[in-house]
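FAQ

Q: What does a record look like?
A: Structure on top, sequence underneath. For example:
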């Protein structure tokens, strides 16, 4: 059973930056597309960003475009989310997820993902 483990969350002031990491437990995930989602209290889980298995294609939600950057290092079996210019609306639990690269559907379709991490809390103070 493949596992994903997120890290890098924490408390940051508005305008600050954080870098989230997602470590994969098995090389199998190297051929998976990866996504980042987040869920704020009382809200549904929402798509943040996605990257294809080779790292050649990335996509972002409108709310984070221009502020967040997704990347991956397959040699390290890791995916990252660099978050800049954070604001209080970015406060949420952030999850990384993996899906078979042969699956169809947009990166934002949470039901297409096969594996999920346990989440890491990001809190942005004003």
């Amino acid at each position: 059973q493949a596992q994903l483990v997120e890290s890098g969350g924490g408390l940051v002031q508005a305008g600050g930056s954080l870098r989230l990491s997602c470590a994969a437990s098995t090389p199998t995930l190297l051929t998976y597309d990866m996504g980042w989602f987040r869920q704020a209290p009382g809200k549904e889980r929402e798509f943040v960003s996605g990257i294809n298995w080779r790292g050649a294609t990335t996509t972002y939600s409108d709310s984070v475009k221009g502020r967040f950057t997704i990347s991956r290092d397959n040699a390290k079996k890791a995916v990252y989310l660099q978050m800049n210019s954070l604001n209080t609306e970015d406060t949420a639990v952030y999850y990384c997820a993996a899906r078979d690269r042969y699956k169809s559907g947009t990166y934002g379709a949470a039901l297409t993902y096969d594996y999920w991490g346990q989440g890491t809390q990001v809190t942005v103070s004003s």
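Q: Is there anything notable about this one?
A: The chain has a mean pLDDT of 95.
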